[in-house]
Amino acid sequence: MDFRIEDISPEEISRRLSVVEPLTESVRRLIDAVIRTEVDDAELIAATERIDQVVQTLRSRQRDGSFGTPYTPTFIGMPWGNAAVGARNAIAPPLQIRTESGVAECEMVLGAAYEGPGGCVHGGVAALMLDQLVGEAASTDGLPSFTGTLTVRYLRPTRLGALSARAEVTGREGRKTFVHATLSDDDGVTVEADAIMIAPKGFALPGGEVLPHPATAQEEN
Ligand SMILES: CCCCCCCCCCCCCC(=O)SCCNC(=O)CCNC(=O)[C@H](O)C(C)(C)COP(=O)(O)OP(=O)(O)OC[C@H]1O[C@@H](n2cnc3c(N)ncnc32)[C@H](O)[C@@H]1OP(=O)(O)O
């Protein structure tokens, strides 16, 4: 896994985000426009050429592989390629997650790009968002965790549009954290999930050094 260290200040992080977030938003508008446009074929062909030119410009200098998750030496994470919350990832649902001890929550507006059954949210997208949320809830209080098991129950179809989601830790047992999460529309809960999150034994840094995980340290003492 890529946990490289990048020694930049919070101000530099904000500066980079202020440049890249408008680009990501622009690409989100592009994705939505491609799905919903009704212009004629000649316009579609011309648009393809213009978009290919932009892609060529962006590819003139790019990193190998995925973006990874760089951390500052003070463990500010930059998961900017992340499929659920990546600031550089236009396919990520636009989630702005707030966390406090054992809780993660957010509101979002899902449009045409997140459709499964006609007019409704794709079940995989619902699971993706809830997976991210349970991960963030479990990782508060300094215990970063992976999803071991995620059980999702779709109670009724989730209409595209304004939604909210919430995850809350319900218990901890050694390296395991249990989390309950819900996705809701104006009429109440549409999807609920239960997760068993596992704190890995340690984090391997690029040089091979393994940082002990706080939960592991507790087990060993
Ligand atoms: C500073 C950083 C801040 C970070 C903020 C981050 C926010 C992040 C948000 C990210 C959100 C995105 C989230 C994502 O997308 S995370 C990506 C999706 N998840 C994965 O890729 C995980 C892949 N699996 C693994 O890496 C390992 O199998 C893990 C680490 C899960 C366990 O391997 P490990 O070798 O450590 O396990 P162990 O054998 O010592 O067992 C330990 C205990 O756990 C129990 N167990 C084991 N497996 C499972 C299971 N599958 N379900 C339920 N329970 C399981 C086991 O019975 C035992 O319990 P007990 O016998 O002790 O009672």
Give an overview in words.
It is built from 4 helices and 8 strands; from the N terminus they run ααββαββββββα. It has 2 domains: 1-92, no CATH class; 98-220, Thiol Ester Dehydrase, Chain A, CATH 3.10.129.10. The longest helix is centred in the first third of the chain and has 27 residues, at 10-36. The strands form 2 sheets. The chain has a 6-stranded antiparallel beta sheet, covered by helices on one side. The protein has a two-stranded antiparallel ribbon with strand order 7-8. It is α+β, with helices and mostly antiparallel strands and 221 residues long. The protein is 31% helix and 27% strand. The structure holds tetradecanoyl-COA. The site of tetradecanoyl-COA (MYA) has 19 residues, from α3, β3 and β6. Residues 75, 77, 131-132, 135-136, 139, 144, 146-149, 174-176, 196, 198, 200-201 line the site of tetradecanoyl-COA. Keywords: Apoptosis, Cell membrane, Cell projection, Cytoplasm, Fatty acid metabolism, Hydrolase, Lipid metabolism, Membrane, Transit peptide. Belongs to the THEM4/THEM5 thioesterase family. Its main location: membrane.
Number of helices: 4
CATH topology descriptor of the largest domain: Thiol Ester Dehydrase, Chain A
Report the average pLDDT across residues.
91
| DSSP, total strands | 8
Identify the CATH class of the largest domain. Alpha Beta
> How helical, in percent, are the residues?
25-40%
CATH homology-level superfamily of the largest domain? Hotdog Thioesterase
Span between termini: 27 Å
Oligomer: single chain
| Ligand set | tetradecanoyl-COA
Give me the strand/helix succession.
Answer: HHEEHEEEEEEH
- Per the principal axes of the C-alpha atoms, what is the gross shape? flat
Summed up, the domain count is: 2
**Order of strands across the main sheet:** 1-2-4-5-6-3
Rg (C-alpha, Å): 20 Å
Share of β-strand residues: 25-35%
- Determine the structural class based on helices, strands and strand pairing: alpha+beta
> What about the largest sheet?
6 strands, antiparallel
CATH architecture field of the largest domain: Roll
